[in-house]
Amino acid sequence: MSRRVSKIALGSIAGLSLVLLGGCELGRKQTEQTGYRGAGLDQIIDVAHMKKAAYIPPEPYALPADGGPTAAQTYKNVRVLGGVSADRFNHLMAEISQWVAPPAEGCNYCHNPENMASDEKYTKVVARRMLQMTQTINSRWSDHVKQTGVTCFTCHRGNAVPEYKWAIAPGAPNPGSIRGNKFGQNTPDANVGYTSLPYDPFAQYLYGKSEIRVAGNTALPSPDSRVSIKDTEKTYGLMIHMSTALGVNCTFCHNTQSFRAWNMSRPQRVTAYYGIRMVRNINDDYIASLQSVFPGYRKGPEGDPYKVNCTTCHQGQNKPLGGVSMIAQAPALKGPLIQTALLESGAAPVAAPDQAAPVTAQK
d(Cα 110, Cα 122) in Å, to the nearest integer? Predict the structure, then answer.
C-alpha cells in the first residue's frame, strides 16, 4: 500500500513539474504547435493573463474629403502638418484630443484658448515632436509596423502619458552600506519577470546601439567577439520583457535548437529585429530631444524623460490593439508623401526629413 501511495505522490510531483515548466506560472494553458512535433516549438498561451483586445474609440466624426485650403493657409504656426487640408487637420486635432488629452481639458491641454498659435505650453511642443515621430514610424519602420501602422492611440490609449513607460533606473541607494551595491541585479522587478537578472535592460538595449548577444562568434574570446556573462544576463532580461510585453514565449521568434541561428528562426524574429531598432530611434532621436522641454514631474528619478519599450504599444498582445489598424482614419500620420511613395515602390527607405531636427527648431 505504501509503495502505491509513493508512486501516486511521485506522479503528482512529476505532473506539477510539467505544469511549471510548461508555462512558468500555475493555471490553465493553451498550446499551439508552430513547428515539427518534438522540436519544442509549441506556443504556450497563459489564458488567465491574456489581455483582451483593447477598446477602439469611434471617430469623433467622419473623415472629411481631402482638398481645399491647407492648414498652413488657414492657421498660424503649423510646423508639421501645414500641407494637410484644413478639414483633415481639424479632424486629426479632434482625434488627438480624444486619444491623448484629459477629458476635462480637451484642446486646452496643448493650446492657449486665447491664442491657439502660441507655443507657450510644453505639451504643444511635445505633441509636435510626437507627430513627427509617428510619421517616421509609419513611413520608415514599415518592416515592423507593416501596413497596420500606428497612431497616437496605439501608445496613449486615452491617457495624457502612456501607461507603460520607463526611465533610467536609479543607482545603488547605499553603495557603502552593508547591503552593498547590487550592480543592477538581485532586485526582483516586473520588467524581467521578478528574476535576479539585471532589472534595467532598457538603458543599454533600447536606448543607444549596444549589440544584443548571448554567445560569441568564436570558441574563445577575441577582441572582435567578446560576450560577457553580464551582457548575456541583460539580454535575457530584455527577452523576458519582450515575451511578457507580447504575451508569447520564446518560440514565437526562436527555434530552441539554436536560439542564435537566423536561418532556423521564425519570421517574427525579423519583425522583432526592426522593432528593437525602431524603439531605439524613438527614444534616441525623438524623446531624448525633449530633455529640456519636459518638466521635472514628467521625468524619471535620474532626470531623463520617460521612454518607450515593447509594452508601451503591445500591452500583452503580439499585435497592438489586437491587430486593428486605425491609420485609415488619420492619413496625415502616414508620413511625408515622398517617403510613402518610396516604400510602396520597393525602393530603399530614407531618413525622414525632420528626423534629426533639433527640438529648438520646432518651438
Answer: 7
